[in-house]
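sry for the spam today, last one i promise. C-alpha cells for design, 176 residues
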C-alpha cells in the first residue's frame, strides 16, 4: 500500500509497484494534483517499505504519509522536530519508526484519515507496543474529524487537520 506525498515519490513508488511481483495499491491524493511540481535528470528510485526522513529534529517526531507531510512540515518549520514520511503503509518501515521514536522520546502521528480506527490508531498502537520504555509521553494522534469528508471546500478544510491544529497538539506533547 503506497501513499506518495511528493512528485518524485509518486513516480518512484509507482515504478516500484509496477516492478513488484505482488499486488500493490497506490493511493494518490487529489489535493496534490497540479499543486506540486518537480524536475529531475535521472529517474528516481524507491523501495517499497522504506520511509523517508523529511526533516530531522531531536525534541519530538511526527510520523505521517501522503499530503499530510506538507501540513507537518508547515507546522514545525521553526521547531527542532523530526518529520518521517512513511511513503508506504504496508509494508511499514518499522525500523525507521522505532529508531526515531527511541531517539526523540515523543511521537505525534498525523494522518488525514479519521482519527478513530484508522491507520493513525494502528501506528500509535504499534509504537506504544514496541517503544514504550523509550517514550516520555503517550503517542498523540491527529487526524480528520470522525465524519465523512464533506465536498464543500470550507467544510473540508474544517474537517481535515491543519498546521495550526498540529502545532497546538505538538506543543501539548512537548509540555507533557
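last one done:
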Amino acid at each position: 500500500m503506497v501513499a506518495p506525498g511528493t512528485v518524485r515519490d509518486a513516480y518512484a513508488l509507482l515504478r516500484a509497484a509496477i516492478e513488484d511481483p505482488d499486488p500493490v495499491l497506490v493511493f494518490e491524493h487529489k489535493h496534490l494534483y497540479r499543486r506540486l511540481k518537480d524536475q529531475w535528470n535521472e529517474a528516481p528510485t524507491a523501495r517499497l517499505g522504506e520511509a523517508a526522513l523529511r526533516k530531522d529534529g531531536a525534541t519530538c517526531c511526527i510520523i505521517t504519509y501522503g499530503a499530510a507531510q506538507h501540513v507537518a512540515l508547515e507546522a514545525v518549520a521553526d521547531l527542532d522536530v523530526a518529520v518521517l514520511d512513511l511513503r508506504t503503509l504496508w509494508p511499514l518501515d518499522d525500523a525507521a519508526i522505532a529508531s526515531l521514536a527511541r531517539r526523540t522520546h515523543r511521537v505525534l502521528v498525523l494522518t488525514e484519515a479519521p482519527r478513530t480506527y484508522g491507520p493513525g490508531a494502528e501506528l500509535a498502537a504499534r509504537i506504544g507496543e514496541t517503544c514504550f520504555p523509550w517514550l516520555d509521553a503517550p503517542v498523540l494522534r491527529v487526524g480528520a474529524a470522525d465524519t465523512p469528508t464533506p465536498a464543500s471546500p470550507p467544510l473540508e478544510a474544517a474537517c481535515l487537520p491543519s498546521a495550526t491544529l498540529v502545532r497546538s497538539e505538538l506543543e501539548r506533547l512537548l509540555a507533557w
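The mean pLDDT is 95. ok im logging off now
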